[in-house]
Amino acid sequence: MIHLYTGKGKGKTTAAVGLCTRALGHGFKVCFASFNKDTDKYKYNEHDSLRKLGAEVISFAKGHPGLDKSLDPNKIAEDANIGLQFLRDKISNEKIDLLVMDEILIAVRDNFIPESKLIEFIEDKPTDLELVLTGRGATDGLIEKADYVSCIECVKHPFQKGQLARKGIEF
Question: How much is the pTM?
Fold first, then answer.
């Protein structure tokens, strides 16, 4: 089935990581692929945890021009599309039980990947592959394709009062 975690609230990636942990506990083969996250600059320790539990963790289109003005949006788009094709080939050639495409919805929202390409990916995926898509700004077309849709909204967050992100909680 297809899971979609979207909205402006905290917890989309965390929900996906939790599902990975559950699947790994049942012996599933898990691949966690992130888009538009600079994994070298910002240490995403959940990636280390998933690796220790046996998941394959990969990253594409490292960073986002909205957060790092030195990044070329065309290069980020090229890298994101290379990542999408890489994952298409991977799920065609390997038996994977759960694939998370973390922040892929941002890549679509910001026009790095056309919505039509991600919809085609979904339509062509193996029927026994559980697929999770995360990120803000899910399109109506992707919501329509999903079996599970969770919209995580921010009602209140310490950042609104000037509290910086905290190690082990927000990152």
Answer: 0.91
